Sequence to fold (165 residues):
Amino acid sequence: MDKENRLFSKVLYPFVIGMTLNGSPVAIAANQTGADTSAHLQVGRYSLMSTAPSTGQVDLLAVTVERSIPETVKSIGNALDWLLQGSGYRLADTSLLSDEAIELFHLPLPSAHRQFQALPLRQVLSLIVGPAFSMVHDPAHRLLGFERCSRQTPEASASPLIKKQ
Fold:
């Protein structure tokens, strides 16, 4: 195949150019790539709908949320409970959590953590508990817990504000 024919097949072939009855030109894209269209369902002349599950359906903590936590929610633990409503997850029983995590849940919710714009639920939960804790989840039972990160910042490890008992 000469250079001109290869150019025609690579550049111009994907489009079928024609004329409508009123004489205006029309271009229709053809599927030359061989892409798998089995994950799509044609629902209209020019519309396709995905038949694959969304990311949020596969990973419940990956669902994108936009939340405004009401003023009636006062503590971090209450905010976590409030955010998990409808997610399919719940907080683990306090008997399974560390004392540090239970103390965290009783802390007041900062004002900066009352409004979240279009973030994955996992990230919203992590922002609320802060960098000192990591999320532990049990997908089989849909339970969430938090544990203190093993690597502490120098400021947190040398804090004179916390009394050791």
Observations:
- Confidence is low (pLDDT under 50) at residues 7-20, 26-35.
- The chain has two domains: 1-34, 56-157.
- The CA atoms of residues 41 and 149 lie 46 Å apart.
- The longest strand covers residues 115-120.
